Amino acid sequence: MNLKQFVIEWNLKNPLDRWWREKHKIAFNSKQHREITPVDIVFEFVEDKLYNKSVERETMNKKKLEDFEKGKWIKEQEINKEQENQLLDKLVDSFKLS
Fold it and tell me: Which site from 8, 12, 19, 32 is most exposed, i.e. has the minimal number of CB atoms within 10 Å?
């Protein structure tokens, strides 16, 4: 097996290994690379994905709250004249004089 084939096969068998080495700027087969276990790499990958998803969700919720406070939700609700008339009719019909 030549070096090129070895690299291809290594990356196919260990897809997260390359991600981990790039993240930590660690060379292939260096002391640090040999000391890490596949379980540690997978754990770190999953942790990063969960953390990023949590941050993304928090950012989205913050933006939604800001949009709500600015009244953007009102602008998004476009009602055509027919719908507006139906809503007014329902409101008038539901109004009771006592």
Answer: 12
For residue 70 the two structure tokens come to 């600015």
The CB-based long-range contact list for 9-15 (8 Å cut-off, 24+ gap) reads 14/38
Which residue in the block uniquely carries the two structure tokens 């919720």?
61
The alpha helices in the chain, defined as continuous H runs, are 3-13, 15-24, 31-35, 38-70, 72-76, 81-94
The Cα–Cα gap between 59 and 88 comes to 37
Tell me, yes or no, if the pTM score tops 0.90.
no
Quote the pLDDT of residue 62. 92
* Predicted pLDDT at 23: 95
Taking a C-beta distance cutoff of 8 angstroms, is the pair 9, 15 a contact? no
